[in-house]
Amino acid sequence: MIRLLVNGLRIHFIQLSRSSNDIVAMTLWPILYATLAYYLFGAHSNPRVLFSASLGATVMAIWGSVTTGSSGALDNQRRYGTLELLVAAPVPFMAVLAPITIATASIGIYALATTLLWGWLVFGIPVHLAHPLLFVVALPSAVIAIGMLGLLIATTIVVYRAANFLGNSLEYPGWLVTGLLVPVSVLPAWVQPISWVLAPTWGMRALRHAALGGSTLPDIGACLAVSLIYAGLALFSIRGLERLARRRATLALS
Amino acid sequence: MGLRRHRLKPARTAGLGLSALAAIEVESLSRSYRSGTGVVRRRRLLVEAVREIDLSIREGELFGLLGPNGAGKTTTIKVLTTLLLPSSGSAHVLGFDVAREAREVRRRIGYVFGGDRGLYDRLSAFDNLSYFADVYRVPLRSKRTRIDELIEMVGLKGRERERVETYSRGMRQRLHIARGLLHDPPVLFLDEPTIGLDPVGARDLRQTIASLKEAGKTILLTTHYMFEADALCDRIAVIAGGRIVATGTPAELKATVADRTIIEIDVYGASSALIDRLRDVDGVASVAVEAREQAQVILIQSSRGPELVQTLMRELDGATVGRVVSREPTLEDAYIELVGRA
Question: Which strands form B109-113's sheet, in the order they lie side by side?
Answer without folding.
Answer: B109-113, B187-191, B218-222, B62-66, B235-240, B243-248
